[in-house]
Each structure stands twice: as C-alpha cells, then as structure tokens.
Amino acid sequence: MTIMSSWKRLNVGVVGGGIGGMSTAIALRRAGHEVTIYEKSDFAGEVGASVSCAANGTRWLHEWGVDVAKGDPVVLKKLINRDWRTGEPVSVYDLDDYEKRWGYVYNMFHRQYMHAMLKDSALGDEGEGPPAKLVVNHRCREIDLKASTITFENGVTAHHDLIVGADGIGSVVRGILGIKPEKRPSESSCLHANVDTEEAVRLGLVDYSQDSALEYWGGQEGKWDKIVLSPCNGGKLLSYYCFFPREQGDYSTQAWGTDSRPVEELLKPYPALDRQVFKHLSIGKEIQPWRLWVHDPYPYLHQANVCLLGDAGHPMMPHQSQGACMAIEDAAALGILFNKQYFNGDVAQTLVAYEQVRLPRVTRVQAAAAKAAYNINERIGFSVNKDTPTYKVEDPKKVLTIEEMNAYDMYRDIEEKLASIRGLSYTDKFVCGLPVGMELPNGVTIGATA
C-alpha cells in the first residue's frame, strides 16, 4: 500500500452509538484513527428486531475482521413473495448461488445481536487500530463548525478533527448542518411482532424458519397491505413487519419501546390474509409500532469537518432492506478515504469526496425503496422476475438490480472522485464504482451514452 506522506492520525468524534456509529468506529479504527463514540442515553444499544445485511454490507464486516458468528445470523437462501390469500408463491428469487456470484452471503441478523457484534469489534482489543472509546449520557446540543467542537447537554465540550453524525432519523447533527428535512408520513403504517419458532411448531403451525428466506405476503399492484417475515437468531425467532393503509391505524408519532399493542390490533387489518401466516401473527409478542416517514433526499452530507452517516444523512423506507447496508457502506467509505493510502491530511476536502461517493448511491436506493413500498416488483431480486404474471414496474430501465448493489467497487468509486477533486487523471474503466460495459438485467449498460 502507498502511504500518503501527509497522512496523520485523527481524533474522531462519532455522535450516536447505534449500528451506524459502531460501524464508523470500526472502519476509522482500522484506518488508524482514535475514535470516541458519544451515546445520548445511558446504554449504547438498539431496539427493534431483524435487520438485513446483503453482500454489499457483509463484505465490509469481513474486511474489518468482525466476528460475524457472534451476531447469530440466518444466511438467506431465497426471497419469496406469496399470494395474500392462499400463501402460494407468486415470485421467487433464488439465492443459492449468491455467495458464489458476489463473494459474500446475505445475512439476516437480530438487531440487538448485530449491534453487540459490532460493539465488540469497535471497543475490543482485537484487530488493527486503537480500540474506540464509548461515552454514554452525552446528548449533542450544538457543534461549532469552525472550531470543530461538540457541546453536550451536560455541559461537556469536546474537540475533534473529524465529527460524524450517526445519530439516526431524528438527527441533531443534521439540523446543526442546516438541513431541514422535507418529510411526510408514509401512506402505510406498520406494526412489528416477534414469533417464537419453537412455540409455532409446538402449536402445529408451519415452520417458516426452514425456508431460510425473506418472505412477503402481498405488496402487489399498488396495495399497502404487506407482511414481511425475516428469520433471525439462527431461525429461532421470526420477525414480522406488518404493513397496512395508514387510515386503518396511524402510528407516525408513536415511538418503539412502549407497551406491547394488543394482538387484536395486529390482526384487525387482515381478514383475508393467508390463514397460515395469520395464525403465526395471532401468537405474536412484543407488538410495536414502527414510525414510517418519507424523507426527500438531502442536498448535502457535510459541512466543514462534520458529516452525516446512515439514517441521519439519508433516511429511507425499509422496502429494499438496504438501510443498514447503506450505513455500513458510509462507514466503509470513511474508513477508505481516511486510510494511509488516500488521506492527504485535508479533512474538509476528503469529506467532499465522501459526499460525492455516497450521495448519488444512497439517493438511488432511497428512491427505489419508496417505489417498492407499494409495488414489491420494484424490490431488488423481484425487480428482474419479469415472467411473474403480476409483474409491472414504473420504468423497467430504472429498477434497482442486485448487480448494481453487489458488483459495486467502492475503492474504484473513491479513486475516481478523488482524482477529479485533486485534478488527476482517472483511467480505470469504471463509472461510479461499476465496470464500464457491464450489462444490467434492466437493459442498462454501464458507461453507455444515451
């Protein structure tokens, strides 16, 4: 590796100790920097249930040396879309050759287990770079952009060479950077429920854990009714996300972590639902509302020596299962840009490159996730199953494909953007991290002129 003669170790402050914050700490630690994570509560953890980590996220976990087995994942083998009433498969996307094609598996984690796995890598002694520090009960109040200083609500101040706002969808750092979200409640609402696989089997119900699949009921032809099942904890837990029109129940202002909603509330929107999955929902536990807001893309991701990451910088609807992967990719981009090969000591210039690398990609996924909210055929995987009788998409040339996500070479993307910023020539045959001439299943050829 070529070491930049002007490289220097930075003192980095990460605001937010969730999945994005921990990923950032790992990536920048591996790049040789000192990282302090500031968590607003008295515990850095996660709430919720399952979280997807496709190959474009899993690859960075391996590159960073994360012990993935600690997360107790389910390795997905299929995506299955089922008929709303009968449960019969309508569209199946097979992932049997997924690892062979993309080099990494598609993991499904329980959110708390994934967070603990990342936290161990960020704070533990093992692995390259100085272990990150975690400071709890530090809620960000303001940031002096010129002085690069954070002031917390408890009166403590901290100076850092680089500050990363990884403080989620309600980001304080985002507001400090002057970004005022254009947002509106989604037209769909969501309740989440957990089902214990052992209990379902004991009651004689179908054992969906055997499918090792992300499974969907409905989601066709513009309807808001959709059930999403994702197995986690090695298949021991079945995580259900249950969507329905907002007029049937508006949870846009309710937070996760309150008392469990009654099971009758969960079942009410689904009188015609396939009885097999309906019976699963009838034994659902920890029924929680999930606030769904549609955010328009933000105009930028950084100011001075401060940048945004993950949901703080690009909240997206969950319907492409890419939210966590995009946060992990953000972290990976910072880790590469600030490593000994690429970082020239200029933090603000490097964040210009970060924004140029990340903003187009996350905006693309954001828009695709909004489309897939009401049409499952827009979802990665199903988006290329054109032989499905119900297949219809807004624009076949614009569907998001698995190739775009997993053939992406972030190193090439970064080199292209840095060359432009630094006035250097870039001769590799890549455009935005994708190989020139690559033909996507949607009929688009990378680098071809219109």
Topology (SSEs and partners):
Layout: E1 11-15, H1 19-30, E2 34-38, E3 50-53, H2 55-63, E4 74-75, E5 78-82, E6 89-94, H3 98-102, E7 107-110, H4 111-123, E8 133-135, E9 140-144, E10 149-152, E11 157-159, E12 162-165, H5 172-176, E13 183-185, E14 188-196, H6 197-202, E15 213-218, E16 226-232, E17 237-245, H7 263-267, H8 275-281, E18 285-289, E19 293-295, E20 302-303, E21 306-308, H9 323-337, H10 347-372, H11 402-406, H12 410-421, E22 430-431, E23 434-435
Parallel strand pairs: 1-2, 1-12, 2-8, 5-15, 12-21
Antiparallel strand pairs: 3-7, 4-7, 5-6, 9-10, 10-11, 13-19, 14-17, 14-18, 15-16, 16-17, 20-21, 22-23
Helix pairs in contact: 1-4, 1-9, 2-9, 9-10, 10-12
Main features:
D-Amino Acid Oxidase, Chain A, domain 2, six-stranded mixed β-sheet, seven-stranded mixed β-sheet, FAD/NAD(P)-binding domain, globular, 3 domains, alpha+beta, 450 residues
| Uncertain stretches | none
What's the average pLDDT?
94
CATH homologous superfamily heading of the largest domain = FAD/NAD(P)-binding domain
- How many domain units? 3
Multimeric organization? single chain
What strand order characterises the main sheet? Answer: 6-5-15-16-17-14-18
How far apart are the termini? 38 Å
Largest beta sheet, briefly? 7 strands, mixed
Shape: globular
- The CATH architecture of the largest domain is 3-Layer(bba) Sandwich
As for the CATH topology of the largest domain, it is FAD/NAD(P)-binding domain
What amount of the residues lies in strands?
15-25%
What class, by secondary structure content?
alpha+beta
Radius of gyration: 22 Å
| Continuous helix count | 12
Helix content: 25-40%
What is the CATH top level name of the largest domain? Alpha Beta
**How many runs of DSSP E, i.e. beta strands?**
23
